[in-house]
Amino acid sequence: MSSNDAEIHGSLRALALPRRAVLHMGFVAGISAGLGHLAEAAQRSPRNADVALLNAALALEHQAIAAYDAGVGTGLLKGETLDLARHFQSQHRAHRDLLVGEIRKLGGTPAVALASYTFKGKDDAPIEFKTAEDILVFALGLEGGAASAYLGLLPQLTSRAMLSTIAGIACDESQHAAAIRLLMRQQPAPDAVVR
User: Quick check: 105 and 38 in contact, CB under 8 A?
Assistant: First the structure.
């Protein structure tokens, strides 16, 4: 493995935040920092740039699937909230499958999910789900962070063919966040521009 490849893989590991995933308030900052490292590494190895960026997105999808497993597995979600969580998880699986296919088309090796994930809050303490609202607050941070992360990928991709797919996934993540806000009786579109 070249030093550029090693640097890209190191940035991916930092972005995936496996056991120290901060998906509550610090999620967007962590993703932005990871994408910045990827962009720097990708400039030195443009051939691998899109594969690295798509693998970073794939790592996010693996985390989202695991997060919804954790939330649904508590038994705290009921009725339409449970149905919505399962639906969102199925869409994250669809995102994952799409990204795996694109990475393979580019000749890359897709990132694999970790055996387990531990999600932590901004205080670095493990997140405990005691109520359905706890799960919704967590999911809102996850979905908002994912939308921002996908938007951050757009200017870095060299493959113009991927732009509409990544933009579409960003929009889907924003829809997830809006639906969660509605369930929480919040303004579904609090900002004029998603960042």
Answer: no
